[in-house]
Write a structure and sequence with these properties.
Blueprint lengths: L2 E2 L6 E10 L3 H14 L3 E7 L6 E11 L12 E4 L6 H4 L7 E4 L1 H4 L9 E4 L2 H8 L5 H12 L5 H11 L4 H25 L2 E2 L11 E4 H11 L4 E4 L6 H9 L1 H4 L2 E4 L3 H13 L4 E5 L1 H6 L1 H10 L3 E7 L16 H6 L8 E3 L4 H18 L2 E7 H4 L1 E5 L60 H12 L1 H7 L5 E3 L6 E6 L3 H11 L4 E6 L1 E3 L5 H6 L3 E6 L5 H10 L5 E4 L8 H12 L1
Parallel strand pairs: 1-8, 2-5, 5-6, 6-7, 10-11, 10-12, 12-13, 13-15, 14-15, 18-19, 18-21, 21-22
Antiparallel strand pairs: 2-4, 3-4, 3-16, 9-16, 14-20, 17-19
Amino acid sequence: MFRFPSKGNSDLSLVLCGAAGQGVQTLEEILVDSFRKAGYHVFASREYMSRVRGGSNSTEIRVSSKRVRALVDRMDILLPLNGGIRANIRERVTPETLILGDAAEIKDELADRGGTFLNVPLMEKGREAGGPVYTGIVAAGLLAGLLGVPPEIPEGLLKERFIAKSEQVVKNNLSAFEKGMGLFRELVASKGVSVDIAKENEAVGEMMMNGSDAVSLGALAGGCDFMSSYPMSPATGVLTYLARHARSHAVAVEQAEDEIAAINMALGASYGGARSMVSTSGGGLSLMGEGVSLTGITELPVVLHIGQRPGPATGMATRTEQGDLNLAVYCGHGDVPRAVFAPGSLERAFRLTFDAFNLADEFQVPVFILTDQYFLNSFYNVPEFDTSGLKVQRFLVESGEDYRRYEVTESGVSPRSVPGFGKGIVGTDSHEHDEVGHVQEDFELRRRMVDKRLRKRKGILERVIEPMMTGPKDYRNLVVTWGSLYHIVEEALEKADLEGTAHLHFDQVFPLHPDTRAYLDKAEKVITVEGNATGQFADLVRKETGFLIEERVLWYSGLQVPVETVAAKLLELLR
């Protein structure tokens, strides 16, 4: 008899894997929404190879009676759709893992891993339903049955998803799902497999989304009306989301021929008064460096979303890393004031992307949103976003006949107008220029204009977001994070149960909050947890505050670090 959860766990960790083209992503999306609608809290995170067909991709789905928002190494149930299981999945199998697989496909691949294997003829049932392509839907039926999901929920989702193809495709999918339910009933009858996790009605009415959705919704709420990007994983999801909703939200979306064209188009649209955005990865931002610098001297606002992945160069195109912090903070030749956000949750991604548009417009600077593959491709249920008090702020003025686009002001922010809004001429140039926008080789003017632009830093600093502190106020140890590691470290600290340890998380990584040094000085020991090889944020803290964070937990395999690994590292360093 196999009963889950075991050992006091309040949630079930389920891992699905299969070749690209087998529908693992579709299976994931159908299941997470079904589980949520059935009353479970759900977290899912996918990892995939850089292939259109073949290879082996996987997704982890946690189903829980309480909120779960982080990746774990524990694998209660593994369901492989085919053979060729990758080492990063094989290594997670333990004697406690139940493997539900097709013996004809898996053969003896996992025989040496110690888990319990139960044969379920997924491929055979898929062929009966219409072909091997339906194998994943058979698995959906099996798993929905195990979790006690009312069948009308996933059946409704399948109809909604496939009705545009044909009635026959819908019929085949429903047949495959029912065959999977049949396999579930056989497992219960023959092996006594059962799952006992309390349902939570709170989750039923919540939204199911991933990081790409949250950033995109924040952009729409922030008044984004122009998006230009060249597709580059993992940031493409934001481009495609805005493209799908372009007509309903009046957004002009352009797939540019390359990243250089993308940022220059965004700046051209900004010159015309649009609230512009680009979405790219580190390699794309490298190409956009000259455009970022152009933003600085033309003082045109733009929001840049950066979905980080491992570098250098192409690196690992579909994997995750926090390796582009230095690039975001320093890219662009010359001195360019900016702000860099790195949201740690879907709620914060929505709000910070909204804020980015107002901040960019107010100070006429580039504002960066740093995410990564793990964050963008992770799903979980969230309450409806709080939109109260959100107001799109337009900082445009009508130009008069004596209008000067780059007028020197005490704040460094010049009055911004756009062509056609008033009688004045709206000049701009990539060369150093005077207040009107005319090119000048005047060395005293050069000093005045540089000083003017740099005075914006003071205003940006006044808007900086305070880091989020959790844990005891009289802490002895302080764990510092930024970006997507927030929920992982949050759960790791709960698991490690370290007395006197607090968590300081930065959703804005540049400029740093003025109180940063005070938080650090209060602790006897400070540790950063980062997804890069050198501790880029720790180095930035040293540069900006003078405080050296010596203890660093760094992870850069291309996979996200799981909760258990972080907990073990913190126990090792703090006990």
